[in-house]
Amino acid sequence: MYKLKTTENGLKYIEITNNAACGKIAIQGAHLFHYAKTKEEPILWLSDESFLEHGEHIRGGVPICWPSFGFSNPELPPHGFARNRMWDLVNIIEVDKDTTEVIMDFKHSKKSLRAWDYKFHLTVKFTLSKKLTIELTTVNLDEKTFKFTQALHTYFNISNIDDVSIKGLENKPYLDALTNEKHMQEGTITFNAEVDAVYQEVDKEIILKDKKREVTINNEGSSSVVVWNPWIEKGKGMSGMAKEGYKEFVCIETANAFDDCKFLETGESHTIKVTIS
Ligand code: TA6
After folding, report:
1. How far is the C-alpha of 121 from the C-alpha of 138, rounded, in Å?
2. How many angstroms separate the CA atoms of 118 and 238, rounded?
3. How far apart are CA 63 and CA 78, in angstroms?
4. What pLDDT, in 10s, does the model give residues 58-95?
């Protein structure tokens, strides 16, 4: 079952329910801001102070960072413009009683060409079932080659930041975005301070181990992963985040960032995909 709804603050979204899961996807940014398996705690975190207001940034869920991750393109807003624009709903397919597919797209416009002078077609396919998959495909419709970076900036709901660990990134090189230094990951990742790390050469399943459950993350078309938690001080200053909000989530972001940036020639496409279970 699915419904097109609008929040009291004017944010248009699609509400999806099937036997296996439920979800909510805002038309603005094609932003999935709720996903939970039936009778389970949400997998995705959504800030209690998130605006859910048309034109405002949604804090949580899976922001689509495109065509640039972070500040990698100084001419664009941080994390690019795709997450702030209205996408088009292409189709909703109820594959079976446990599976719903939602396809949305976003093409270049006079406005986007002013910000980023390339013609493109961006399509995202969400599959909500016992697993969540998100596939984001970029097609270069321009006569020029373009470079882009991107991330599915997933906020995972956790019991407490003190009680989680991340496996699967051991012995991977990473850039510490806080110091701009490069290191090698030793052992599992735990948290006792702000973490903002871009891992490269990622080639296997990642496991987020929480007190209450384990969540697995498998990536395709991506060899970089960003791990982020703002901790106390940074967390206090983040828009749409409560003072203690940092305790409730960790971001593990399937990306094409930094060394894992992508170049597309005319007519070429690239798909990045995350499977969360
Ligand atoms: O992905 C980590 C990061 O780049 C952090 O440095 C922090 O800026 C975070 O994204 C939040 O970004 P946002 O623009 O969503 O507030």
Report:
1. 6
2. 31
3. 12
4. 999 999 999 999 998 889 999 999 999 999 999 999 99
Q: Is the dihedral of CA 82, 41, 126, 216 positive or negative?
A: positive
Q: What is the DSSP letter of 7?
A: -
- Give CA separation, 63 vs 69, 125, 229, 258, in Å: 11, 14, 15, 18
Question: In which residue are the tokens 């697993």 written?
Answer: 131
67 preceded by a cis bond (ω within 30 of 0): yes
Determine the pLDDT at residue 32.
98
Q: What is the DSSP letter of 82?
A: G
Contact call for residues 130 and 98 (beta carbons, < 8 A): yes
Residues 6 or more apart in contact with residue 179 via CB below 8 angstroms: none
Q: Is the CB of 226 under 6 A from ligand 1?
A: yes
Centre of ligand 1 from the C-alpha of residue 39, in Å: 31
Model confidence, pTM: 0.97
Kindly list the distances between the CA atom of residue 103 and the CA atoms of 31, 221, 271, in Å, as whole numbers in the listed order: 12, 19, 14
177 Cα nearest atom in ligand 1: 6
